[in-house]
Each structure stands twice: as C-alpha cells, then as structure tokens.
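Protocol step 4 of 6: structure prediction from sequence.
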Amino acid sequence: QGQLVESGGGLVQPGGSLRLSCAASGFSIDMYSMGWYRQAPGEERKAIAYLSDRGDITWYAESVKGRFTISRDNAKNLAFLQMDSLKPEDTAVYFCSAIHSEVYWGQGTLVTVSS
C-alpha cells in the first residue's frame, strides 16, 4: 500500500522561507506526477504546484508563482516544495499528491505565517 508523508511545516514570519518534503513509501514516484495542494481554514483544498513525472512540465497557481518551487528526487523517492517570501495568506495545511493510475495523498503539514 502506497503512502505519502509530508514534513517541514511550522511557524514562520512573513517574508521567511520553508521547505516542505514529501516522502513516498510502498511505491516509486518516478512514474507519477507530483502535486502540492493547500487548504486554508474554512476553504476548499486547492492545487498550487504540479510537476510532471519526467520533470519537464511545471504549473503554479498565480498566488504562489515566483515564490514557490516544486522539485523531485526520484532516486530518494522524495518531492519538495520550496516556499520563499511567505505571506500570512499562505497559512494553510499543505498536502502532497502522487498522480498516475492511482492517486496517493499525504496527511498534510501545517504552515503558519505570522509575526
């Protein structure tokens, strides 16, 4: 059974940076597209970043474009989300997802941006 586990969330001041990690187990991510999503309090879960299985196609939501970077290390079965210039409105639970014939979701990691 495949599993994803996110880590790296926490409390950060506005303008700061965090790097989220997504560790896969029970399957290899090299055939999977990877996505990051977030869900703010009282809101629906929204896609914010996407990286194709070969790493040649990326997509970012307008709200994070230019500040966030998605990447992957297939050899280590990891995906990452580098988040820079964080704003209070980035506060949310962040989820990673692996997408292919199956879709796997992590349990989420909380990011709080506050002074």
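Step 5 (inspection) to follow. The two ends are 40 Å apart (CA to CA).
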